[in-house]
Amino acid sequence: MASLLKEVPVLYAEIAEEIIAFARTKISSSVSDYIFLSLTDHIYFAVTRYNKGENIHNVLLWEAKKFYKVEYEIGMRALDIIKDKIGIEFSEDEAGFIALHFANAQTEGNEINKTIKITKFVQDILGIIKYHFGLEFDEDSWNYGRLVTHLKFFAQRILSKENMLQDDDYLYDQVQHKYTKAFECVKKIEKYVINGYGASISNAEMVYLVMHINRVTSRNES
User: Fold this and answer.
1) What is the pLDDT of residues 9-31, one digit of tens each?
2) Repeat: is it a keyword of this entry (predicted)?
């Protein structure tokens, strides 16, 4: 922090502190203390870019709004705080960037790149499910929210290549025959994971995916 404040005015630390205080009223899970450093640094350079006329489009804005709704709400509140403190009015692109910082702070890591990878992974898996079943998700439904949450943790397990779920061959055989269409979809997901990440999926992981996918797709179809 001392090193950071040699380059960044204290005002930006105060802005970050106010945003984090608001975030803690919205996020029930633990938030890494690293967010104070990363957010202070991010806001300072965002303002620096703004003053230079260097506006960066957030290509993950849609994903941030859909997959991290609470964090995006924090990002929008952050824009109000920044405007109130220094008079700069950022677009919602910046709210999306801040949302991803808070999403990252809940994964016990300090690399925003990991959160971006997780977001892309989830987006790709949802795309596979969507086109396999030929449907549009009800993104406000409880089942959709549970699926997205499961996919986030699934992505973390794939990217870290550890903590895979213990196999359950009995349930694997059951869901393979009971939920045929969902199982076919999971086999496509397995192929995507193997080709894209060089990782294998345990039978237990496939069981969870089948059950989540069957639940969300059967509710959509009905």
Assistant:
1) 889 999 999 999 999 999 877 77
2) yes
Closest alpha carbon to 151 in 92, 94, 192: 192
**pTM for the full model?**
0.60
Tokens representing 197 are 């990440």
Q: How many CB atoms lie within 10 A of CB 176?
A: 18
Domains and their CATH numbers in the chain? 2-107 (1.10.1790.10), 113-221 (1.10.1790.10)
List C-alpha distances in Å: 60 to 11, 51, 56, 65. Answer: 28, 23, 12, 9
